[in-house]
Amino acid sequence: MLSETPVIVNFTDNFQQKIRSLSKKYRHIRTDIQPIIEELQSGNFLGDQIDGTVSSMILVLILIGFYYEL
Questions:
Q1: How do residues 17-70 score in pLDDT, each as one tens digit?
Q2: What is the dihedral of CA 63, 59, 39, 5, to 10 degrees?
Q3: Distances, alpha carbon 32 to alpha carbons 3, 26, 27, 51, 64, in Å
Q4: Residues 6-20 pLDDT 10s
Q5: Beta bridge partners of 59
Q6: Cα separations in angstroms, 34 against 2, 9, 41, 62, 70
Q7: DSSP H or E run through 48
Q8: Considering only Cβ atoms within 10 Å of each terminal Cβ, which end of the chain, N or C, has fewer?
């Protein structure tokens, strides 16, 4: 679904804390989520809309991939 109005992406405190702690183990996590943030800002709403909220809230689940170099 594309939106014509400007989109502001806000992060919960919990999300910011999780990203901070995960970035220590997964150094690439911030660059991995950047395309998703850009999609949301452009108005392409990924994920599921949460019903019963005052403003439009979208829940996006992100799979964190990692690999080991041997």
A1: 988 998 888 888 888 888 888 888 888 777 677 777 666 666 777 666 655 454
A2: 180
A3: 23, 10, 10, 27, 8
A4: 778 888 898 889 889
A5: 48
A6: 18, 12, 10, 11, 27
A7: strand 48-49
A8: C
